[in-house]
Fold:
Amino acid sequence: MTASRPSLAKRAIASTLIASCTLMALPMHASAQVVPTDALVQPAAPTGTAADSRVRVNAFFAREDVRQAMVKEGVDAAAAQARVDAMSDDEIRALDGRIAEAPAGGEVLGLIFTVFVILLITDILGFTKVFPFTRSIR
Structure:
């Protein structure tokens, strides 16, 4: 009975595995440093406080052309203003960012449509009663 010798490819694979398993046992060094938060977080909305954002959003909704566009879409301006007043600081900052990014006159209807959809969904869920044509699921 003669033992056959392993092929050259099998010997190369075995030698590579032996070397890599041996090297895995060696200690590895890592270094770490403190990274400031400012380096990782980019501001998503215009700079300023939430109160500044709230003032800009309220000024936007107080404009006559915005009110006319809301009426044209069937949104009660007072109900929309009440909904905006109920928004959290993060929501106000996001809305302020969308208003700031909107081109003059081009994105206003999109923003009003977004407010309309939010009010419609809250009507359907039963949180508000702005539109007479909706029925609450509650």
